[in-house]
Request: fold
Amino acid sequence: MKVRILVSYKDSVLDPQGQTVKNALHTLGYNFIEDVRQGKIFELDLKELSPEEVEKVIPEISDKVLANPIIEKFSWQIIDKSQTREGREKIST
Amino acid sequence: MKFGVVIFPGSNCDYDTYYVLKDVFGQETSFLWHKEHDLKGVDCVILPGGFSYGDYLRSGAIAKFSPLMKEVIEFASKGGLVLGICNGFQILTELGLLPGAMLRNKNLKFLCQFVTLRLENDRTPFTHKGKKGNVLRIPIAHYEGNYFAPPEIIKELETNNQVVFRYSDAQGRVKEEANINGSLGSIAGLTNRKGNVMGMMPHPERASEALLGSQDGRLVFQSIIESKNI
Reply:
């Protein structure tokens, strides 16, 4: 079983990296981009756990280790092979 | 005064700090390996600068799980003196011994240079040899030193006089142009509520001998050494 966890700065926290990427995109003419927030992705391979166990353990490790709750938020999803695609393919969720 | 300097994998200011305490100040000093559970009876624990665990995940995020940190938390809760310098400051926030967290510097640059600081609180064990308003010249060397805390915490820090150092210009004026990394409130160093744990981004161990261009960092070590007299 694979779980993907996305960690990024809270909306109230300035993200200087996201701002820099936004400015670079504007320089290239993509002026329709209003904001960019940058984050980190963790993909965990798990032994088979019950849905209840996953619900419990993923927020727990995200809060304790992967994210710093003072500045970061997280979201997560269970993914299967069809959702890990290469290159230009669009991921459907 | 007995000092202990903690070594994590990736610490790189551990020997500088040890040298200053032992050779410059002539104090009894030991290294404390992060995997042990023994503080060796020291009076002051120092978490030195560097890149513990390569700064993987977040600065200080992995170091907080080192075995010795259990003893450090217990030591601090009993009033023991704990000083975190640079990466040590980042570890103290991750441990929850100090409030807040560090973001990347506002200009996204690793900053390695002398800065000037205004001493804001001269009534801590770490600064009582100085005077409020003193301007100190001490170097910084970090990429993630942009101090952040929610507004209610910042307010609490100010009310309780926990801010010890602020980035300032050479005349001691705190203003946005002198706030080199973008820290909220220009905060460069702070203590916990009780005042026995301090974190600071600048490196006092790099400014403790005239040969290195400044001796202003001596204030911090001299204050700790004489802290039993306050």
